[in-house]
Structure formats: structure tokens, C-alpha cells
Amino acid sequence: MPHNTVAVVGAAETTKLGVVPDMSQIQLHADAALNAMADCGLGPKDIDGIATAVETPVQLAQYLGITPTWVDGTSVGGCSFMIHVRHAAAAIEAGLAKTILVTHGESGKSRVGNPPRSIHPQSLNGQFEQPFGPMGPPSLFTIPVLRYMKTYGVTEEQIAQVAVVQREWAGMNPRATFRNPITTEDVLNSRMIAYPFRLLMCCLVTDGGGALILTSADRAKDFPQKPVYILGTGESVETPMVSQMEDFTSSRAFRVAGPTAFKEAGITHKDVDHLMIYDAFAHLPIYGLEDLGFVGRGEGAPFIAARNTAPGGKLPMNTNGGGLSYMHSGMYGMYALQESVRQMRGISPAQVPDAKISVCHGVGGMFAASGTIIFSNQRP
Amino acid sequence: MPEPGRALPQPTPETQHFWEGTKAGELRLQRCDACAKVYFPPRPFCPGCASRQVSVFKASGKGVLYSYVIHHRPVPGFKPPYAIAVVQLEEGPRMMTNIVECAQTPEALQLDMPVEVVFEAQTDTITLPLFRPAKG
Predict the structure, then answer these.
(1) Interface ipTM
(2) Does B86 touch chain A if contact means CB atoms closer than 8 Å?
(3) Does this model's pTM top 0.90?
């Protein structure tokens, strides 16, 4: 289904990002949603569809004063918001709703109104992974990487360079959490978390939120902001258990979501001016570049190390600094979407000149899920 | 008060045979009677062809170290640094485990090294399958 008839007309993050102990998680959703409504001049009564993750659409609809005719509570981790955008585009095309709000809010650092999520000992993860000592994403998301490194001869230095390049982008962004330049040596000398991953190869833990408002492309021209059109979308899931991935060197969910979005958009890799690949950890942009077909197998790390994705490179990637340096509340996908929208509006602090097409690729869980959105500022 | 131990599984009807197996000193996998696929984790049907005709069998307990991290943060029941590993079993499936009787270092933990299952009782009912470098 070609999604060329729907556009983002409102987009905003929470007023504050980083450490926000004075807002609970649901208020972070609301703060972002109110900012996005203000961005496009709408109010809650104008919105008839709502999608969100972790918090339910029921909670958000009541809290914000929205009476929806369409809801989506897909909650598959950090790429849930890419999938919400995909479902929202389909819903608008099908006439199920006219104006859809997608919200994210997460008190990831301060943990106000964000109770800890536990893994039940009767679940498959609880029976066949938790007894062996993992503690959250740094010790799980990273497990396939030694196999990847051995398969393709990739070094720790090359993985460290992902973090170095992204810090360069973060340095241009006044809202980024970490902005000071770092070197490969800084990364390799940072504290060991889960060999081969050191602290600076792992994402931040912060508080924040973001929201998007979508409507039909025909209506989009009547809003104050430059419309950002949805060209193509994709989604998939693979496994809740990282140990059960089919291939430790590649994500099946990436290989489904990415090409589906490219096919829908009818574009090739050469058409892409700007790229976001969800980087909870430094290996994810490497897997993403390969699984989306921007480079061949085993070429992702040298491609980044050769500065192709750095400022001045031919494929600017993660231009907000990414989850490694910009912010990461736990489910980063919304912030990647926000940067793609800023780039398409031409207002990013690290604006790519004349960018017309942006690919935004997300991951959920530990390679559990994926969603890809392709945006353009040109009406197809 | 004793220190809290590691997280332990609670078997379900679909996984009971696996945990009864580890308690009896056997690593039990399942094979599809229709398409011969060997699979893990346990379920009473084949994830390859959806047949409900499946059999439990005793696996060799042999495999290779497929990938791992060496965790440096504290977790109840573990003394950092310790490896969280995935082994590739001779029969095909992969499973998460720990590598015991081996230094928890990159030098000692070489990918593709042969490993074999050992069983470590945690409680009267739960025994975990761990792996050690293969002997001989």
C-alpha cells in the first residue's frame, strides 16, 4: 500500500529532555502531545485517533481529553512509534480517523510513574534466559556481537568509532545530553559494562517524550508547518529472546521492515539524503546499514569508520547524536522520528542541505521488533 | 539472611519435560515427527510446520560456544565478571547458558570451542543446564 497520501503536520518533543524529575511518565506524554498540538494549531477535540506504547491509549485519551474513533496500543519496544506511524497512515487512508496523535513519554532516568518491568519466571524469557544472569539491555542486546565480529573481522575500535562519530553530530545540537567530543581511545578506556561493550558504546538513560500528529496529505497544506509526507513504511517482529535470533549477524525484523518500506516508497538507496538508525548500542547502526541494504554484509563498521555517516559524509546518519549522545529514555524511536521530521522541515540544528528523503529505522526489544518510516518533504 | 540467588525458572505444562530432564541429568529437546525439525524452547507443536506430532528426546549435551558477553555489573546470584553465553547445540538449536569450569575472560572463552552440558541443582525441583569446555 503506497502511503503517499498522509503527512506529519505536528511534531514536538517534551519542553525539557534529560533529567526531568518534576514530571511523571504520563505527564511527559502529555507535555509532548500539547507541544505537538500547539505546533499545528490543533486541540484535543480535533484529534480522533491516538496511538501509544507502554501507557495505553485509554490512559492517554482520558488524560488528554480525546474521544477517539481509532486507537493503537502496539507496544513492541522502542520502534513502537514507527509502527504507530505506519498503522496511522493506513487508518487515515482507510477513513478510520482523520487526525491521529502518536505519543511517547518515558521517565527512564527519574522513574516517576514508571514502575519497573519484571520478567515473569513462567515466561519463556524467565525460564530460558533470566536464570543465566542478564540484567537488561546492556547484557542482552550485545550478546550476538562477538559472533558478528568473528564472522566479519570487525574490531572493537571500529565499533567504538560509531560512538565517536555520533558525538560529533551531538556537538551541533544544543539539546543533546552529551556534546563534548570524544576519541576512540576515550570509548575504549571507558568502563567495561558487558565485554565487548564499554560505557560509551551504550545509550544514555534519560527522561523525555515526543509526539507526532498525522493527517491526510490533502489537508496538510492548511497547517502552519511544512508538511512531511509518509512515502513508505515497514514493520516486523522476530523473537522476544535474543538467544533465539535466527542469525546473530543480522536482524530478520530489520530485513523485513526495511525493504518493505523501500518498496512502498518506490525509492532506491541512492535517493536517501538522511538516515536515522536507532542506536541503543553502537552495533545497531552497523546491523541497520547492512540489513537495510545501504552496504554489503560486513561492510557497516568500515563504512562508518571511513566517515561516510559523519558530518560532511555522503550518508548523514543519526544527526541528533542518537541514543548514544542525544537522549535515550528507554524507547528511543520517537526521538529518531522527530529528527527525521526536523530534517524534512529544514530546521535541524545539524541540517543536511537540501535533504528531501529521510529514512528512519527503529528496533524494539533486543532485536525483537522493527519499524521503518520513509519521509519526504516533497509531495509524491 | 542468605543473599538472594539467581532468578529461577517456573516450569509450565509445556516446559515441564525439559526441567524434569535437567533434574534427571538429561538435556531434553523436541523433534517434529512430521518434518524432523529439532527445536527449542519447548512447545507441544513444531514451529516449522505446525504439526502437533512431536517427540521429546535426550540430546547429546554437546555443542560449541556461539557468542557471549562478559557481564561486569552485579546481579543477584552472580559474581562479576561472568559470561552470559549462547551455545549452539550439536542437534541445531541454540540456548542461553553460563560457561563453568573456565576462566571468564576473552582469552579463555573462544568462540566455536567445544562445550558439554553439566547440570547444577539450584533447588529441590530446579536444575539448570550449564556448559563447560568439552573434555577429550
Answers:
(1) 0.97
(2) yes
(3) yes
